[in-house]
Write a structure and sequence with these properties.
Elements: H1 2-20, E1 36-43, E2 49-54, H2 64-68, E3 76-80, E4 85-87, E5 89-92, H3 101-108, E6 121-124, E7 137-144, E8 147-154, E9 163-168, E10 175-183, E11 191-199, E12 213-221, E13 229-234, E14 253-254, E15 258-266, H4 268-283, E16 303-317
Parallel strand pairs: 1-16
Antiparallel strand pairs: 1-2, 2-6, 3-4, 3-7, 5-6, 7-8, 9-10, 10-13, 10-14, 11-12, 11-15, 15-16
């Protein structure tokens, strides 16, 4: 009995001691300074498309108004191919005709129903001189609030598939992955980017996907197979988290799926940016993930990317 009383007194004393040692700590956070962000690309056969935003304070309240309020609509953006220069024009969501809203929502990356509600502007041009061509280098100059930002990117030579095919898994004969064979050019280092779009896969014959989707790790380079034939495969990024599909079939393409594969060659700076960006996206929220600094090819301490994509397309029916 005496032992229990002493034990209780001991616990109370220790508890009071630690409670009395508590001290309120106030952190003086540095004043937040927004950073300029560029998200731009030019692909083979397509005009340039550039979105400009500023970063937001992570400790500030966040909602759609705050997010979409970060888009910039008063910059001057110029593009040059080394011989001709053009000023890009604004394309704003609240000025797009209703019949084009669905297509435009793909480029802006926002739901169709929000297109007319917010004033979000991208920069592009219909000048045929700036339809992306392999072998050409495209430079941009952006003037915004007294500062100038520059970048350049090259559309590399394309690398097409030698073959593209679907192969079922042994244990589940009607589900499988997409495989590809390429002959990597030996004359230069090559960096690749893989995207997919499924066509006419629902019971009404409609397209399942309205845009190209990226796999978990869509980039790879030829470090270990430069100048050699190389075979690889990719999963279905759209079925990995589809709860309407039995778990054992997720990540696979089903027999009968029609898939358009978009295969691009990109520069080394662009490859490094996308490689690290997707690594960060895949590890976000993990307490064991190492912090990743995503590089940028934009001058003047800006964030983001100006990227050239040398694209090829191939249609595949999974059978």
């Amino acid at each position: 009995m005496e032992f229990r009383i002493l034990n209780t007194i001991f616990i109370l004393v220790i508890s009071l001691y630690f409670t009395s040692c508590q001290k309120e700590i106030k952190l003086d956070l540095p004043e937040y300074e927004p950073r300029f962000v560029v998200d731009g690309k030019i692909e083979t056969g397509l005009p340039p498309f550039i979105l400009l935003t500023t970063t937001k304070n992570i400790f500030a309240p966040a909602d759609l108004d705050t997010l979409f309020g970060s888009y910039i609509d008063d910059a001057i953006v110029e593009i040059s191919d080394g011989s001709i220069t053009d000023t890009l024009q604004q394309i704003c969501t609240d000025e797009i005709p209703k019949e084009l809203e669905e297509a435009a929502s793909i480029f802006f990356g926002i739901p169709k129903e929000l297109m007319s509600k917010y004033h979000l502007c991208a920069y592009s041009t219909l000048n045929p001189q700036f339809i992306g061509m392999p072998g050409k280098t495209y430079s941009i100059k952006i003037n915004y609030q007294g500062k100038t930002y520059r970048s350049s990117t090259k559309i590399e030579s394309p690398v097409a598939f030698d073959s593209l095919y679907w192969k079922p898994e042994n244990s589940i004969k009607d589900y499988g992955l997409i495989y590809a064979d390429i002959k990597d050019p030996a004359s230069q280092q090559n960096n690749y980017y893989w995207e997919v779009l499924r066509l006419k896969n629902d019971k009404y014959g409609n397209n399942v996907d309205m845009k190209f989707y990226k796999t978990r790790n869509p980039t790879f380079d030829d470090q270990f197979f430069n100048g050699l034939p190389f075979s690889f495969f990719y999963e279905n990024p759209r079925s990995r988290f589809d709860e309407t599909i039995p778990e054992e079939y997720r990540g696979y393409y089903q027999r009968g799926d029609t898939v358009l594969v978009k295969f691009s060659t990109i520069g080394r700076n662009e490859y490094t940016y996308y490689r690290k960006k997707h690594s960060q996206l895949n590890s976000a929220g993990s307490p064991f993930a190492s912090p990743i600094n995503i590089p940028s090819n934009i001058s003047n301490n800006a964030l983001g990317i100006w990227a050239g994509f040398s694209t090829t397309y191939q249609l595949l029916i999974c059978r």
